[in-house]
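Field log, afternoon session.

UNIT: design team B
ACTIVITY: writing a sequence onto a fixed backbone
BACKBONE:
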């Protein structure tokens, strides 16, 4: 214990003289590091060992380092490990989140739910083995991508609670997941999110998107084709088309329902899932209006 304490103190203090960095055979002076000289990468653990300590002390230190690593590997995941709070979850970081979550939590099953109009992956996470299904969907509307973070937090909270056998708000999560299956889809409209960020890209729809938006995507809610996904389901479709005629709504940032119900691959995928699974509840998240709508 005294030697481990001595090693830890050495790591904190910066003394004059040489240090052994990484493995015993590689050395570097502090002065060289101060000049900005970079260490070569090494697949083994990089740590600092005082020259005054013998190999038995090094073994003790390595054991301690391994224990720290194991604790880190089993630490709960956090959204901010992958994303900045003011940045939409898109691209490789979004895929990394699902890949890492599935590896970290055995109870979690990640599916490639569908592909967007422009071919981007739409991921969903499933947890639970019950016969009663609950379906959560976020980011129908591109500007409302903040809803995706709420659902990603929900994924991590359910998965970690199941692993730790703990309750959430007095609810036994183990029992809950024996009776219910949660399917959680954080981002239904990845193409629209990219457009809302001003990331147009060279796609077959590039010129059309510029015409629809006038070059301003700051209020973009629709998918890549200018269809409001929330209006593209069969329920209420005729009413939406009548509203378009009355108010002169065309393909563009918002409120255009599409040429026919489920014309868009994103909504068709959701509707197909609902027809085959028939969940007890469907919860879609939105971030405008400061209101909560509920249908008993």
């Amino acid at each position: 214990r005294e030697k481990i304490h001595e090693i830890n103190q050495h790591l904190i203090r910066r003394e004059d003289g040489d240090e052994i960095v990484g493995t015993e055979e590689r050395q570097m002076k502090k002065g060289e590091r101060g000049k900005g000289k970079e260490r070569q990468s090494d697949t083994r653990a990089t740590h600092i060992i005082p020259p005054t300590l013998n190999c038995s002390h090094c073994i003790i230190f390595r054991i301690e380092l391994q224990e720290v690593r194991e604790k880190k590997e089993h630490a709960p995941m956090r959204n901010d490990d992958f994303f900045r709070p003011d940045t939409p979850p898109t691209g490789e970081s979004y895929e990394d989140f699902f890949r890492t979550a599935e590896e970290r939590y055995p109870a979690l099953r990640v599916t490639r739910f569908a592909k967007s109009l422009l071919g981007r992956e739409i991921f969903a996470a499933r947890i639970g083995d019950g016969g009663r299904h609950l379906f959560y969907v976020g980011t129908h509307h591109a500007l409302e991508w903040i809803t995706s973070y709420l659902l990603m937090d929900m994924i991590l909270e359910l998965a970690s609670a199941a692993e730790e056998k703990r309750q959430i708000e007095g609810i036994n999560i183990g029992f809950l997941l024996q009776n219910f299956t949660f399917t959680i889809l954080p981002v239904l409209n990845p193409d629209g999110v990219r457009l809302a960020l001003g990331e147009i890209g060279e796609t077959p729809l590039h010129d059309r998107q510029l015409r629809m938006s006038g070059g301003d995507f700051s209020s973009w809610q629709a998918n890549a084709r200018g269809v409001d996904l929330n209006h593209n389901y069969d329920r209420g479709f005729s009413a939406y088309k009548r509203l378009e005629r009355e108010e002169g709504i065309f393909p563009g940032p918002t409120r255009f329902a599409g040429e026919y119900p489920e014309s868009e691959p994103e909504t068709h995928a959701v509707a197909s899932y609902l027809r085959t699974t028939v969940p007890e509840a469907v919860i879609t998240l939105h971030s405008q209006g400061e209101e909560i709508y509920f249908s008993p």
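LOG NOTE: The two ends are 62 Å apart (CA to CA).
NEXT ACTIVITY: expression trials, pending approval
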